[in-house]
UniProtKB/TrEMBL annotation:
Its cofactor is Mg(2+). Gene3D superfamilies: Nucleic acid-binding proteins, Ribonuclease E, catalytic domain. The keyword Hydrolase applies. PROSITE patterns: S1. Belongs to the RNase E/G family. RNase G subfamily. Coiled coil: none annotated. The keyword Transcription regulation does not apply. Residues 39-120 form the S1 motif domain. It is found in: Cytoplasm. InterPro entries: NA-bd_OB-fold (IPR012340), RNA-bd_AU-1/RNase_E/G (IPR019307), RNase_E/G (IPR004659), RNase_E_G_thioredoxin-like (IPR048583), S1_domain (IPR003029). This is Ribonuclease G.
Amino acid sequence: MNGELLINVTPSETRVALIENGVLQEVHVEREARRGLVGNIYLGKVIRVLPGMQAAFVDINLDKAAFLHASDINSTLITNEEKTSEQVPDIRSLVHEGQHIVVQVVKDPLGTKGARLTTDITVAARYLVLMPNASHAGISQRIEEASERARLKDIITPYCDENQGFIVRTAAEGVGEDELKHDAEFLRRVWSKVLERKKRKQTKVALYQDLSLAFRVLRDFVGISLERIRIDSKLTFDQLSEFTKEFVPELTAVMEYYPGERPIFDLFDVENEIQRALHRKITLKSGGSLIIDQTEAMTTIDINTGAFVGHRNLEETIFNTNIEATQAIARQLRLRNLGGIIIVDFIDMSDADHKRRVLHSLEAAMLKDKVKFSISGFSALGLVEMTRKRTRESLEHILCSECDVCSGRGNLKTVETVCYEILREIVRVNRAYDTDKFIVYASTSVSESLVNDEFHNLAELEVFIGKQIKVQTETMYNQEQFDVVMM
């Protein structure tokens, strides 16, 4: 698999596109005014404890109070008696209102929900993750060879003490002792700075802030074979070059500054792909389509055959469309960064073997995704239920806002419906107030319909109430807006 990163930098925004085999697979966007909070460490203040929810709200100087569940509170705060119980201890025994507590953000604020917090603090570097509240050395499960796991544990165990431990990341497989030592010392220095800021009771800003997007992707895109990394900002290119020389030396050779006149995101048609990722409907090459609806509770994906009629029979057509859809679904989940509960409504299949092969195809396609996921089999209703870990907002939530016209419904009242609402409003106002005539202010399409298509209804209403009704166009009104004014 050939991978390439395109990094587009402006003073207000950084965007990163991951291209695999010439096709856009992931887009990451970070705006300076709305930088992601995941990984940031704060000295927060408990402002409310909710025993019924086994949670607390913590003020970390954001617009919304952050959420800390009892299960996310580090075990060092739990008594020995509570440790023997399998149940999560009562939140009131762990924190109290007014208490200052060091917390880390594990999920950005999403919609109406505040950030999700934990007291299990971790700080990541290239090869290691520091755990200030632990005392052991852990090895990534993806490092499978027993001898390599033992070697890494022997190297890192001397750096662990009663106050801090380390997790060895997947990228450390085959790495020498010097590199691991460098990471351990670096992370210790970082944590010392955090403790200094904590002593100063620094509550207005983060005790520790994770790397910005451009640096973070170079640190985290572990295991992906990157042939080239192009950056269109000379300043950022120089900064990233220094960063890679120190922390990710194997990437230094593939980095290059892109000075081209053509915008970097026009390469591989990235800009157009981003626009298509905001559409509800995705067309498949065969003529079928995906309909993707994102709600606060879940995301639903419906597959349709469209114009694809197949060559042999309907069952083959349905099977081939569903197989093609699995590849598109996996890509769209990554591209749009959709998380949480996902319900996929494949086209109904009667053949049990076809169902098994479609499910296997979806699982295989999702293996390219770095984000944790799980897939259940077909339910009794023929739906596939799956989950994908959600730690940041989706592409749609970052780039779009709720429609002012439809308030997020996704549709508008028809012109005819609005016209009839206006006629009813005139009758209501006429019964409630004494007036000589009415003026209706409405959008262009509605006012034209009132004086043309609904002319007879309007004339009959004038006769019914015995008063004149005048229609006036307001070009600034949307289709659902109108005013009925008494004169």
